[in-house]
Design a protein that fits this description.
Strand content: 35-45%
Number of helices: 2
Radius of gyration: 24 Å
Helix content: under 10%
Length: 541
Amino acid sequence: MAVVCLPLWASAQYVSKVWSPDHSDGTYTNPVINADYSDPDVCVGASGEDYYMTASSFQCVPGLPILHSKDLVNWEIINYALTNLYEGDEALLRHFSTPQHGAGVWAPSIRYHAGWYYIYWGDPDFGVYMVKTQNPAGKWEAPVCVIKGQGYIDTTPLWDEDGRCYLVNGWANSRSKFASVLTVREMSADGTRAIGEPVIVFDGNGTENRTCEGPKFYKRDGWYWIMCPAGGVPTGFQLAMRSRSPYGPYEHKIVLAQGKTDINGPHQGGWVHTKYGEDWFLHFQDKEAYGRVVHLNPVDWSTGWPIMGKKGEPVTTYKKPKSSSTLVVNPVESDEFNSNKLGLQWQWHANYDEKFGMPTAFGTYRIYNYKLSDHFVNFWEVPNLLLQKTPADQFTATTKIRFTSKADGQMGGLIMMGLDYSALVVKRVGKQFQLLQLTCKAADKGQPQTEQLIATLKPTTEDKIDYKPGVHMDIYLRLSVDNSKLNFAYSLDGKKFKPCGAEFQMREGKWIGAKFGYVSVDPNPKSDRGNLDADWIRVTP
């Protein structure tokens, strides 16, 4: 019975070899998650001892990652709230079946209210959505479209003491052709629909508060609070606003800025008040190719305003929040692919189709070749890229794969994907394989990729049958990252690795950091699919 009652996420705790913020002496170093969890938001769970975080996932699926912590420093991935975008709407399921880079889930908020956990987000093309559950580690209900329309982003609900519900949101200039304003409206008490008209409560246009966005809504000591960033993502700061009415007017103050630190732009996040009487703010820092990493700063309310960090500047090393837990745990990175479920670190680049790939009973994960289009230019169009976030500024990822080809031109391997990308792949050419570095600059602009031949390799084995034989290549591939520069290496025995190819300057994706993982494709429209079997991938210093 004790085993049955464990939380759904209970398993061997993962400690990263490349970034763990906990010093095990009562202090921590920022970032608490050195990976791209853009626009993080956090809430205190029902027990008061559990914290739950979510973040933007855009077009990547599964979407809306759910992370859990006992102390706001040590985090692990426990679930996703969205399987695909958007279950229950066939038209949108089809829309997101191809990569819609930078679209989808923007800046969610997570809240606990009356026994339920809620996540709200704005999809700038389709409206405001909400999902809910009573168990963050379990099944989340199908998404509900709360407000239909374009331009809505960065939504947060607030349930007041009288049971009334309000929603604050920002606006995407790319869709609405205006921005830097925040609006508040009343929602139904169950938070499923708008019942009031929007009211502009803050306008940052023409001031230092331009690009005000990402608002989070709170109530404290009779004041309505909106906390939001302004001034731009890499260069901005945090504002706090307060009013006696949810509809304003709001007075405002800068409560966190870079100052003399090297932590640029401290951007949007979430405030929590702990059961120990402490106040903390989780927010992101834009690190370009590495994405938007998560920082934790203390909050001081002694002046009546939430002054964050150390006198309004972000901290680098600080004492940990009070907690009953001493557990050190980090988001998982390495994978032995021994489970019958895909590891939680992985996301596809579009809605999942079972023909993308699936786990096997053989201790591998199989990724079938994606059939490239007739007008193929580069991998920007490929939905079955199986990728994860970069976990640190310096790291090495080594993988063992078997590539099985059924036709000439089929290829697969290891990729670092962004607006620019580079991949180390094996490609079937006749009865042999070519080891190639494929590099593309400005993939998002439709630029073609280039090929560099590294080696010609004999296959490891060939099927000795007449019916649709496969040709197999067993190989170890490695990528090493340092200061956003990437280098490849390969090995045929897993012991001696040979550096290869040209050094690659990593670049972020569309609103996301660069991501690494697997590519498996086929230019032949009628051939049987080949496949990449990933045996393991290990992330090390």
